[in-house]
Amino acid sequence: MATYAVGDIQGCYDALQQLLDTLDFDNTRDHLWLTGDLVNRGPNSLEVLRFIKDLGDHAIIVLGNHDLHLLAVANGHLKYKKNETFHDVLNAPDRDELLDWLRHRPLAHHDGSLGYTLIHAGLPPQWDLNTTMSCAREVESELRGPHYRDYLESMYGNEPDCWSDSLSGQDRLRFITNCFTRLRFCDADGNLALEEKAAPGSQPAPFVPWFEVVDRASRNMRIIFGHWSTLGLHMGNGVVCLDTGCLWGNQLTAMRLDVGDVVGRDEKPDITSINCPELRKPGLD
After folding, report:
1. Contact at 8 Å (CB) between 151 and 142?
2. What is the structure's pLDDT at 280?
């Protein structure tokens, strides 16, 4: 039995199948962790959702910004834009079943035996593991509850931009959502720079990649994330970024978790990447 983490798929179903074939993935035995953004911008969001859903307990998914965006559009809070490519999901006969399954996915997952925590984007410097998981559960409870449409309607926006335990209501939920699904850069005090989307080195001072904040509370965690195609494959500072820009004509990448670079071990990580046929101008979202 093997466990693999895979970077952002964004509707690239053929690339996912090619990667799984390369890994000799057995869907009755092996397990997948997925960094979120299953859908949008690529050509086959519907096939991706159906395939991952059918894996059942053999797949663990954390929600990304594009996944939440699909839910918001599907519930009428935003209009479908011409550069979006999840119309196949919205028009599918099993649409409601797929969307209900998607909104019941977590924002964070932790496995103590493997020693890894899975998120889509980032964590503010004030959050340790307990706070991370507690905050994730707050949003998950809203998204899975009877008033989830209220949450989807109010989740957009860049404020508040710094964490406080006293945050409440939709402000608190919006900040938590922005960290888990949009964060790339922040400063040492945890002020988020959500408009900065390019590669490290492009951002103004005093902002740094969230995982480079000195003495962040999550520094002892091993974190796997995606979201940042312009960062690409990155290993260091206790984190692994697996978004290698498949959608933009680069690669789709997997890392095996049950061998190699696990907490307490020094083996080289087991990384597999395949070229993706999607050729689009690099984007920053």
Report:
1. yes
2. 54
